[in-house]
Design a protein that fits this description.
3 domains, alpha+beta, BirA Bifunctional Protein, domain 2, five-stranded mixed β-sheet, 462 residues, single chain, 17 helices, Rossmann fold
Length: 462
């Protein structure tokens, strides 16, 4: 190949790939998340990476997301088929940008095969036309759970979400975190009570959702641009800044519910939030793990009730590490019936990137192997293979060194991959049915009979 024909093999902008040590961390997190999801009875599904474009765009489902379309690229000798290959209308296809819209289509496709409430988890890759930047990717893995009912869904499912979030983040030891909770009916009802026109409420909620990012002054300016007068604007700012313990905030909300005008929706939101908080407590979630934050809005239009955002204490600049909420209409889009749901999502790819960069998590060793059986001389390979298999049957992960090289080089290879032990068997050891076991962490080397080798390694593994 001529130098001018050199192919650019770098990853496309916004499409990341992990090194083995990072991928092993991702798999560990996936296993942990899966274990917690399944402990609450969530069942796995997987939907195609490609959906019909009309499904992804149905009733405004696309939102602000840029969708990647799928178009056939024909080889030079098949260009005559170009017109036939063109996909339009119901045949146009695109990559999924989230898990919720595909969930709605999945339920519509399999309605008669599912039991409701339907509780599923999904840990697929999704694709968005994000502006590529640090921590923002165009391909990333999301870990989602949703519970979907037909016509009604208990608020206790909303209460389970903070319990699940708590178990996951406690299990992976990322430090202190706080699940901030609110209810969209409270915000909607309060906006109505201060005279905001119904047509402007959604946009005003979206503005409030930016408060933490842009600050109070910018929020006030944006509310003024929406035509909200100074007096209701100040009432809104004062309202979303209400703080205190969970019970103190609930008491303030219940007082407002009895005093503000047109408070029916507001009161309903407060009642729902109180029910959810009671459930969260009954599920044993520690009081320091959750709070009520009236500035939490979740800017997406489809949320109608409980909303959640989770932040790391001391690392708030990382943003939300798990978010979600309740919706009423989204999943029933394709069936024309009310199918309320509640769910949360962990953007795992982005989360790993941010936590590694902040030093909150560290990547794993490059290999899962715990032991390397080194090659002292090729004629002893049958013994090396036999010993390796016995260790594997004992539940120990093993790499066998097939190339005979200087011992120091083999030790270096093991250390580079994060392998703790090397098993050394030369002619004398083989004749005596013994081995030398070297701990590369402590540099200690001990003699061990081959019949006791597996037990000795298990005892010493850290």
């Amino acid at each position: 190949m001529a130098k001018s024909d050199k192919i650019n093999f770098s990853t496309p902008s916004g499409f990341t790939e992990f090194l083995p040590s990072e991928k092993r961390l991702e798999l560990y997190l996936l296993d942990t998340i899966r274990r917690v999801f399944e402990s609450y009875g969530f069942t796995p599904i997987e939907t195609p990476a490609v959906e019909r474009l009309e499904v992804l765009q149905a009733k405004g489902n696309q939102g602000d997301n840029i969708i990647y379309g799928i178009h056939p690229i024909l080889p030079p000798n098949r260009q005559a088929e170009k017109d036939k290959a063109g996909e339009t209308g119901s045949e146009a296809r695109a990559l999924k940008f989230d898990q919720t819209v595909p969930l709605a289509a999945y339920i519509a496709r399999h309605l008669n095969d599912l039991t409701f409430p339907f509780a599923r988890y999904q840990m697929d890759v999704v694709f968005r036309g994000e502006r590529a930047k640090d921590g923002r990717y165009r391909q990333f893995r999301q870990c989602d759970i949703d519970v979907v009912g037909r016509r009604e869904l208990s608020l206790l499912y909303d209460a389970q979400m903070p319990a699940i979030i708590t178990e996951i983040f406690d299990a992976v030891h990322i430090g202190d975190f706080l699940i901030r909770m609110n209810n969209r009916k409270i915000l909607t009802g309060f906006f109505k009570s201060v005279g905001v026109e119904e047509s402007k409420i959604k946009s005003c909620i979206g503005i409030i959702d930016t408060l933490e990012k842009v600050g109070e002054s910018k929020v006030i300016q944006d509310l003024e641009k929406e035509g909200i007068l100074a007096e209701p604007t100040q009432k809104i700012i004062d309202f979303v800044n209400i703080d205190g313990t969970v019970d103190e905030v609930l008491d303030k909300l219940k007082y407002l519910a009895e005093t503000v005008p047109e408070a029916e929706e507001f009161r309903l939101g407060v009642t729902e939030l109180e029910t959810v908080i009671s459930g969260v407590r009954n599920l044993g979630v520690p009081e320091n793990r959750f709070c009520i934050d009236l500035s939490i809005a979740r800017g997406l239009d489809y949320y109608t009730g409980t909303v959640y955002e989770t932040t790391l204490i001391g690392h708030e600049a990382l943003g939300s590490i798990c978010s979600g909420g309740r919706y009423e209409e989204l999943v029933g889009t394709f069936l024309g019936e009310k199918m309320p749901g509640v769910g949360i999502s962990i953007g795992l790819t982005r989360l790993i990137s941010r936590l590694l960069k902040a030093g909150i998590l560290t990547s794993f060793a490059a290999t899962p192997a715990q032991v390397m059986v080194v090659n002292m001389q090729d004629d002893l390979m049958p013994i090396y293979l036999n010993v390796s298999q016995k260790l594997r049957k004992a539940g120990i992960n093993v790499i066998t060194s097939f190339e005979q090289r200087p011992l120091g080089k083999q030790f270096q290879q093991a250390e580079k991959q994060g392998i703790q032990f090397c098993v050394i068997i030369g002619s004398e050891e083989a004749a005596a049915q013994k081995s030398a076991l070297k701990d590369l962490t402590t540099r200690e080397q001990v003699e061990v009979p081959l019949e006791n080798l597996a037990e000795e390694i298990k005892t010493r593994l850290t």
